Protein: Mechanosensitive ion channel protein
Amino acid sequence: MSMIKMNSPLLFFIYFLYCIPGYAQNNDGLKKVEAKDSLRMNFVEKMQAFAKQSSKKSSDDFEADKASVLQIKTFDELSRTMQKANIYLKSKLDTTGTKTVLNEIDKYLIVAGDGVFTNKGTAQTFRNLTATSKILSQLLAKANTRKAGLELRQQEINNFRYQLDSLLSVPALFKFPTDSTTLMKYLQKIQVIAYETSPVDSALRQAGNNIQTLLNKVNLAAFKLQSSLEEIELYQKDMAENTFKREFTNIWDPEIFYRPFGEILDFSITKGLLTLSFYAENNAGRLVVLVLLTITSFVYLRSLKSIYVEGKLLKSDFEGQLVIRYPLLSAILLVFSLFQFVFLSPPFILNVILWSVSVVCLSVIFAGYVSQYWMRVWLLMVTFFVLACLGNLVLQASRMERWLMLVLSISGVIGGVLILLKGHRDELREKWIIWSIVFMVFLELASTIANIFGRYNFGKMLVISGFLNVVIAILFLWTVRLINEGLFLAFNVYSGTDRKLFYLNFEKVGKKAPAPFYILLIVGWIVLFGRNFPVFDYLSKPLLLFFTDERTLGSYTFTINNMLLFIVIMGTAVIISRVVSFFATDKHIRTGKDGKYEKPGIGSWLLLVRISILSTGLFLAVAASGIPVDRITIVLGALGVGIGFGLQTLVNNLVSGLIIAFEKPVNVGDIVDVDGQGGQMKSIGFRSSVISTWDGADVIMPNGDLLNAHLVNWSLGGNRKRVSILIGIAYDSDLEKCRKILTEILDNEPRITKNPGSVVQYEQFNNSSIDMKIFFWTKHIGDNSATKSDMIIKIIAAFKMNSIEISVPKQEIYLHHKRSQGDNLPDS
Structure:
């Protein structure tokens, strides 16, 4: 036992109690045994009682320590939660903004409902229902946005309250210390926590009540808007199903409902501008893209025109070159005519603006080009079209408007018939226009009949559709014509495939736009024509649902619209990057007046600019289409596996391209030598670069090879190269005179630099000459060969004039005649 170390006081105490009874011995045998047994029993009971007491005490101490740790953690968490809640509460709720939106909803609901829910008149009108529906949809979108924000804020406030309540109800907080002093300190701490928590909880409760009040108002406004939209949808459905239904009495019968025409105009203008402002606010991105595409097209057409002006290829009558007559107007016409289909369900007033701008541009382009007769016909059709559009912006029926519609439709019939009868078809450049005029006469005649007999909505649809049919047909036909001209003009300037023209081979494209382009324009004409009829919305709704319905692939949810949006944005980014590449590397832009190559300003940074454009496009495409970031990481992981298995060379070239772009060992336009290939850097791409050799060929070199090769860049040294000429003069020449002559020739040559200066030095004594060498620097490396050739000519002429002999290799040959045996023998 002496070997056991008694480190524990508890074990020592047990050992001590166990050993004491061994020393108390009694001589009485039986009593000794009984006393010993009783003593042992008392000792066991005492030890058991002591063990229980010690175990309970240890357990209580452990629970107390555990509770103390949990209490500290809970207090810390409470402090952090209250701090976060205070910070969150300081970010004030946009109560004013929400109230402003609610006031706008109430105000604009009254404006939008005019003629639909109030002042209904005898019957609803298709254009008024459409305008009201668009306004209410935008207001509902605003209300839902505010609703989502309020619900999110309320949820966050409830989360804070839940966290506080959860922390305050932790069981460990209610395990009080047994020591009175410690208990008092703990109670004081709880009192402080309660004092700090109470105002935060009250503030959260108050904020929650305020948000709930606003949320109730927003929900009520959203419910009103949704109910109104459903009611309008019923009106539209009824109108679509009863297109030929009679809404009013005959035009000569007395009016049943009267409203001043001026009042109708006022609310029509207000409602039209309201729909336009809402749509422009929600489609600002598309409007910006429209402007950027117009600017890009203008720059391209102006550049194309400058080529024809410089080459003196421009015709005085612009026959076949009308697209570059006014590059800005042509760009506006082409972009507006094509891009209008990107606007989904636009308000009619926006369409009117786009059409009016296009019509003005085409009218200016036409001036002096088409015959006077057809120019007058075009202006007449434009006048009818503008009047019909203005009439279509009037949103409620009136007897005055019906008479104006009647006059306009009858004028259209008479004007169309006179145009068809008068002829001049041989002067018409687009023969298809005749058929659109025939169709217009038919529609205007039907409109006249429908209007007279009270089919107001049907008559109004026909009167706008008739003139729209002609104007849109002419716009689209001339859009195709101008595109064809643009392709033909580019074909005349560029033959074959060129990198800077996006690898577009104009020789294969030819002089005519591809057939699918015509099909798309015909479909576009049908869409614009069909938008004037209520049944069109119901026929097109399944197609719209196909694009907007959510689909699930595994755990990923997507729509066709999002996929198309991603493709369109990325395609636009690629096109813009290549357009930038085109204008940065086009030779006619980089050539100076003297015909010499001028280094482009953006060419050296072209790769970085393209990378920036594509990276921005990728970011916008991912953000706009809602692609989850975790899916991108999966693609990157798969790409990493592909790189490990077989894409090392490709990645090496791509990374080398980035290194070249940032370190710039070579730039576009530099004069280089790479492994014996001398030439000029034409372009630096992502994977490969192009070097135009002096022989006229283009060498495509991977960026990895370019970076690893022994690259000689003459342009980094200022485009200078030292030239040497070796001359051998006769031994009897005046050496100082030779030096003087050569120095004078070198100093008088303007292509040779003065600093560093030229050097004339004698090299060695050769077999038949004294060798001398001249060294000089040309101001540009491109002048080396020509300067060296001219210098040789001048040196020979100067040496001849001064009787200095340019030695040529000489060799003297001595012939030794071998005598025979009979030679020099004495005569016999």
Confidence is low (pLDDT under 50) at residues 1-28, 495-511, 586-603.
